[in-house]
Amino acid sequence: MEFSPIIDTYWRFAHERQQVYFRRLQDPAGPWTNDPIIDRYRFTNAYRAADRVSQYLIRHVQYDESRSQSIEEIFFRTLVFKIFNKIETWEYLERVAGALSWAHTSLSEMSDALDRMMAAGHAVYSAAYIMPAPKLGFVRKHANHLALIKMMMDDKLPAKIADAPTLRHVFDLLVPYNGLGRFLAFQYTIDLNYSSMLNFDESDFVIAGPGALDGIAKCFVDTGRLSAEEIIYEVTNMQTAAFAQLKLDFKGLGKRLLQPIDCQNLFCEISKYARVAHPNVPGVSGRTRIKQQYRPSRRQTEKPFFPPRWQVELEPVTPKDPMNRQLCLSWPADLSVASR
């Protein structure tokens, strides 16, 4: 296993992106970074569960005490939310159909509501994932996805998942379903594991997505015949030593270190970041530009909420925490820091 110089950028990016997360909690107005690439483009947090959409899922979809906490209802709500992966879609459906539940919500009414949402010119799906349509006989993609959820519920999948002995078994139960594939099945496995219906250690299982494969190719000259998943575990295990070697004071989520899912995501993010910071390193995807620029959310920043069993206690943010000025050796000339 032989690293490329970009592995240092990987750890510096993880550190600075986590610092941005804490600075934003302390001062929602910003600015939060002097790194012009992080400032200009959209990147996920170092911890997947800290991302805005994951936070909404955990707080408002899974652990809302006003909603049923049966495994069937938690599964149904989680899959409905995550298939579209868009807060605005979830909130629109609840305005039209009321509190969403398997016991009381009509899937055909949901499909009709999404038809109207599209007709009004609004996007139904998030751009975060490529979402292939399951082929279940409907014209509209969202109608096929709702039919997929019904198929899962009719198969009593929530009970099977709740009885699964390992996180890998949860994945194995999800992956055969039409239109999911390995990466989406893994993402939904992690999402379900945030909820009270499962209680597995996140470190038990990981799948590398296409973006992570590109990031790994940029960070390693030679992987020593290790699989992408083995590489992710190796990197997860070396995080403390890597931050120490680079003299980076990485503050995690309380005592919670980066998990394999987080390091997998960070490989995906460094794949994007390196397109600008290290444009001469091609990776395997052939992509040369970052498509999504940062746009501030109009939503009020909420206090972080994580699965209660994690017992995450965040340290207070230091108001005078210095912003990074040395993430990369040089910046492309057309990038400048914009205060937000």
Give a verbal description of the structure.
- The protein has two domains: 2-29 and 36-50 and 206-308, no CATH class; 64-195, no CATH class.
- It has 340 residues and is mainly alpha-helical.
- It has 14 helices and two strands.
- Residues 328-340 have low confidence and may be disordered.
- It has helices at 6-26, 36-40, 52-62, 71-84, 87-97, 107-119, 141-154, 157-162, 167-174, 181-194, 210-219, 228-237, 239-245, 260-277; strands at 2-3, 220-222.
- Helix content is 48%, strand content 1%.
- The protein has a two-stranded antiparallel ribbon.
- Helix 1 crosses helix 14 (260-277), helix 6 (107-119) packs antiparallel against helix 7 (141-154) and helix 11 packs across helix 14 (260-277).
- The two termini are 41 Å apart.
Oligomer description: single chain
| Beta-strand content bin | under 5%
Helix content: 40-55%
The counted number of beta strands is: 2
Largest sheet: 2 strands, antiparallel
Q: Radius of gyration in whole Å, from Cα? A: 20 Å
Give helix and strand order, one letter per element, not per position: EHHHHHHHHHHHEHHH
Key terms:
mainly alpha; 1% strand; single chain; 2 strands; 340 residues; disordered C terminus; 14 helices; 2 domains; two-stranded antiparallel ribbon
